Amino acid sequence: MNLEALTKKDNKEVVNNIIAKIRDYMNFKNLEPGDKLPSERMLSERFEVSRNSVREAIQKLEFYGILKSIPQSGTFVANIGVIAMNGIIEDILKLEESDFRSLVETRILLELKTVRLAATRRTEADLVAVKAALDAYSVKVMNGEEAVQEDLLFHLAIAKASGNSTINTLMLIITPEIITNFEKYHVCDEGQAVKGIQEHLDIYNAIKDQNPQLAKQKMKEHFKALYQYCYNI
Fold first, then answer.
1. Are residues 92 and 64 in contact, defined by beta-carbon separation less than 8 angstroms?
2. Which of 44, 46, 98, 186 is buried most deeply by CB count within 10 Å?
3. Does residue 61 surpass a pLDDT of 60?
4. Can you tell me the distance from the alpha carbon of 216 to that of 195, in angstroms, rounded to the nearest whole number?
5. Is the pLDDT confidence value at 9 over 90?
6. pLDDT in tens, 131-160
7. Would you call 174 helix, strand, or coil by DSSP?
């Protein structure tokens, strides 16, 4: 395991340790929904850790709906019962880093549904955004440049066009990790990237024509090489 991986693992353990201590503090003080937590500075001093680590732990608990931060006011316990809170935090502490295969499977499951919704619900403004992302990808590829981020921006534009804010949020969550893995494993070679231009165009046209079945079919074809690559690592 390289130094970067070790550092990442160590940081996760620190953050999880802080989350456990915040949970214990909330239980000890019998904090209820709406009650305020001590400041980041006070928590960092109490737990003898850095403020950055405390901030990361709080952000993680915010994401899962345990805490709620209000600018200029502080961090508060969200509207959730003690039993549910402890159960959710226990699950958070057991979570492992997503592996590349899991990310690919999740992305495919999301996008096959997303593209159908986009074909049904898209607006003219959505079409403009999807086409702009497609064009940006095409320009990069034809210039021989890496276009991983432009590729994912195309898919994020489709997620937004689906009109489902939860799916859009999930895509935003997994996208940074996908970009990291694409660059790490050099997933898309030049030939595949060029082929992707036509595949993107086919998906765009199906969405434009409001044909959800064709849009799903074209998305499945687009993901075929990625899925095969993932299971041949």
1. yes
2. 44
3. yes
4. 18
5. no
6. 999 999 999 999 988 888 898 899 999 999
7. helix
Q: Do 130 and 219 meet the contact criterion of CB atoms below 8 Å apart? A: no
Please give the Cα distance from 199 to 181 (Å, whole number): 21
Alpha-carbon distance of 159 to 118, in angstroms, equals: 7
Higher per-residue pLDDT: 126 or 104: 126
Mean pLDDT of the residues in the chain: 85
Distance CA 225, CA 19 (A): 40
What's at 167, amino acid-wise? Answer: I
Q: pTM of the entire structure?
A: 0.60
CB 80 within 8 A of CB 61: no
CA distance 162 to 120: 8
Tokens linked to 180: 């990291």
The C-alpha atoms of residue 68 and residue 21 are separated, in whole angstroms, by 17
Q: How far apart are CA 58 and CA 52, in angstroms?
A: 10
CA 64 to chain centre: 13
Amino acid at the residue 171 = M
